[in-house]
Amino acid sequence: MGSSIKKIFLGFLLFILAITALASVLGYFGANNWFFDLFSHFKLQYLVIFIMGCTFLFWFKKKRIILIFVPFALLLCVDIIPLFFSKNKNTTLKDTFKLNSINLLISNRQFDTVASYIHRKDPDIIVFQEVTSLWHIMLDNRLANYPHRKTIIRGDGFGIALYSKIRFTSIEEMKTGSDEVPSLLARFKFNHQDITLLASHPPPPVGTYHFEYRNDQLTKLAERINSTKGELILTGDLNTSSYSTHFKKLVSSTDLIDTRAGFGILPSWPTWFPLANITLDHCLISSGLAVKSREVGDFTGSDHLPIFVEIGLNHGKFNN
Question: Can you give the pTM of this predicted structure?
Fold first, then answer.
């Protein structure tokens, strides 16, 4: 490589690394600013850029410059590495129920693809988001083996539904947040234990207006969770990533456990740009539950991938 080309490439590389460092820091100031909050979601991408960039710097024998960017990479690892470890992961669980959370996308017309995926995975409970009147009809026609249902139809992307093979002891609509986007609260028994399932889909936090509504809904969800007795599951497209200040606040204030912990990052959105994939679709559980498996599903025509979780009781807790 010629010296002039080498200098141009090195300058461009340093520019990219500097921008990445800035972006990685801005995300930590997203508690009160929707724009800065957006930068918190792409920590895996930042880390990949740092690793690739520092590899080139090492090749160019610029070891001292590498030391500038190492602290930024290590700071990212603080949030990323814990997703690969969990005390509530138990792959030997024998008695479990399977849960799917699927953001359908209101403009999606791949009805048979969605139904085929569900029949293949055979979940016991399904949470649907972005349920319209058309999706309601199409799901009814294709999922007759899920007799226990509750559907709230909306045309604005915030329709929500629960389909289940397990009988609910109760199920109700719950308005959460200032904009009163509906959530669903269902209760059922599993191996004689009471379990509450909370399904929610807060608005996307783009702009101050929706950012505040999203945060308010997460706060209201936390309040309801903390007032609920027994084991609990919160699932849905929460429109926040695992790294956001507001997601961390939700988890810490409720003591819920992210089911992806122990299984990796498992990003689910956007399907149309995999390099930018982030973790918007979540399933959180209380400490009395354990996770046998957790995965993202196949492409079903939506901008989100489905998430699939196999859950059982945490016998260590109930045996103590």
Answer: 0.93
